[in-house]
Design goal:
The chain is mainly α. It has a domain of 323 residues. The protein contains 24 helices and two strands. The C terminus is likely disordered.
Length: 494
């Protein structure tokens, strides 16, 4: 044991019965990392062998995992034309079969969710959520897929975008290139990207989600905003462990309202029709009709069109990587019994792997981001309570995402939340609009920063992400470029 570990051991009392239980089979020493199978930068950790199974995280994932699946399935069905009667007829399937086919996208994504914890990345992964409205805006340039005529350019554009994002994660993860490039992008342009994502999300809620179920969507958004952003409620939660735990669940209270109360009280969405059994998978059908194996590789011009948005997605995702580091540091500060290793290179490589798998086998509109903040906070808040609550960090993140795979395979759980899928999407977009506005405004530090960011955000809301970035670069060159060049000259002179 190192001198540092010995010092910690003397300063902190070792928890009673430390690592004395049956599981995990492989134990760690005080102050060291949880054991695993080393594979270069990765460390494979398996349930029961390298970490315990936590029933609290399992139960949380049963609901939260299916809620995420629901929103992702709703997006997939809309963007890929699986709600169009003509497509159902052309594909020879019913609306119910289309729903089950869309679930296959979510099931594979749930499997990919488990890859980070399995390979030693201490995160609860999610989507690249702030980029979702930008992705939808990008796809809207192409017609809704028409399987009767074979017009599926939108699907191929999504494949090109996600493959490009995967390659960028891979390149950026090697040698820390990503950090250097993101630092080189001016704050005004980064703020504009984030603000543009917020504006696009708000427009999506108003134009597409509110008309679907006006009262349900609005009330669910109000509940979400109150639990997430109300400072008085936050003050109450800081004094109450019970309310603190409830608040750490993020948008779950709003989702519970949409599932349980809204159908009975407002009657804007139907009561759930529970189906029993295991969720069926249709990977063969998906690969034939939605992937490069059935549709062929996207045209080169689609990759070129996708490149600006893919770069914007990485800039957004990089901020999530920074957030993960802070959350992990915060969670482990008062846990000297365990060392948790966070490595941004590993996070980049794992994100590349997940996006590559989805792009090839089930292109996923929300894409695969480094972290789902609400899910990670669900774990870290319990971890901070001490060894008796959660003996290892990996007990939480490993169980949570392994349990998500189980959750999406339980058909009664999926069908329970099915009527609220579009509501979940509306909640996600509304929260994203608020959060992106908050973050984007703070990123823009000067009046010129805010002006350039506003130009980019407006362009993203009206035209395409690639044109918005070009407009933003042009405005930046006119407004801030000369000062930037003079500053460089002055630095060299010094």
């Amino acid at each position: 044991m190192s001198d540092n570990a010995n010092e910690q051991k003397n300063q902190h009392e070792i928890p009673e019965n430390f690592m004395k239980g049956t599981f995990p089979l492989q134990k760690r020493k005080y102050g060291e990392e949880q054991p695993g199978i080393r594979m270069g930068i990765f460390t494979i950790r398996l349930p029961l062998i390298h970490h315990r199974w936590m029933w609290t995280e399992f139960l949380a994932a049963l609901f939260l995992g299916v809620a995420c699946l629901g929103a992702g399935v709703a997006i997939t069905m809309t963007q890929f034309g699986l709600e169009e009667p003509g497509n159902l007829a052309a594909l020879g399937i019913t609306a119910e079969q289309a729903f089950l086919i869309a679930l296959s996208f979510g099931i594979l994504n749930a499997i990919c969710y488990y890859i980070p914890a399995l390979m030693g990345d201490p995160v609860v992964p999610g989507w690249i959520t702030p980029s979702l409205p930008l992705t939808i805006a990008f796809l809207s340039q192409f017609a809704v897929p028409d399987f009767a005529t074979g017009e599926v350019t939108r699907i191929q554009a999504m494949i090109a975008l996600q493959l490009t994002v995967a390659v960028i994660f891979l390149i950026m993860g090697i040698g820390g290139i990503g950090r250097a490039i993101v630092r080189a992008v001016p704050d005004s342009i980064k703020a504009g990207i984030v603000l543009g994502a917020g504006v696009a999300a708000g427009i999506n809620v108003i134009n597409a989600r509110v008309p679907f179920a006006p009262y349900t969507v609005i009330i669910a958004i109000i509940i979400s905003y109150f639990f997430l952003f109300n400072p008085k409620f936050a003050e109450v939660c800081s004094k109450s462990k019970v309310w603190s735990v409830i608040r750490s669940q993020g948008i779950v209270p709003a989702q519970v309202f949409a599932i349980v109360l809204a159908p009975a009280l407002l009657r804007e969405i139907p009561m759930p029709e529970i189906q029993w059994g295991i969720t069926p998978v249709s990977f063969g059908f998906v690969m034939q009709n939605f992937t490069v194996f059935g549709l062929g590789w996207p045209a080169v011009e689609l990759f070129l069109m996708a490149l600006p948005l893919a770069l914007a997605c990485y800039i957004i995702a990089f901020s999530d990587i920074v957030l993960v580091k802070e959350l992990v540091n915060d969670a482990t500060t008062d846990r000297p019994d365990e060392k948790v290793d966070f490595n941004p290179t590993r996070t980049n490589l794992v994100s590349a792997m997940r996006n590559g798998i989805m792009a090839l086998f089930a292109p996923y509109v929300p894409m695969c981001g480094p972290v789902w903040a609400s899910g990670l906070l669900t774990v870290t808040e319990r971890y901070k309570r001490g060894y008796k609550t959660m003996s290892s960090y990996w007990d939480g993140v490993g169980t949570f995402r392994a349990a998500t795979i189980i959750a999406v395979m339980i058909l009664p759980m999926v069908t329970l939340v099915r009527p609220a899928f579009h509501i979940f999407f509306g909640i996600t977009m509304a929260v994203q609009a608020f959060a992106c506005g908050n973050i984007g405004m703070r990123m823009a530090k000067t009046n010129n920063d805010r002006g350039i960011a506003c130009c980019i955000a407006a362009a993203m809301a009206v035209v395409s992400p690639q044109w918005a970035l070009l407009i933003g670069v042009g405005v930046w060159l006119v407004v801030q470029g000369p000062d930037f060049l003079y500053k460089k000259k002055d630095d060299k002179a010094v």
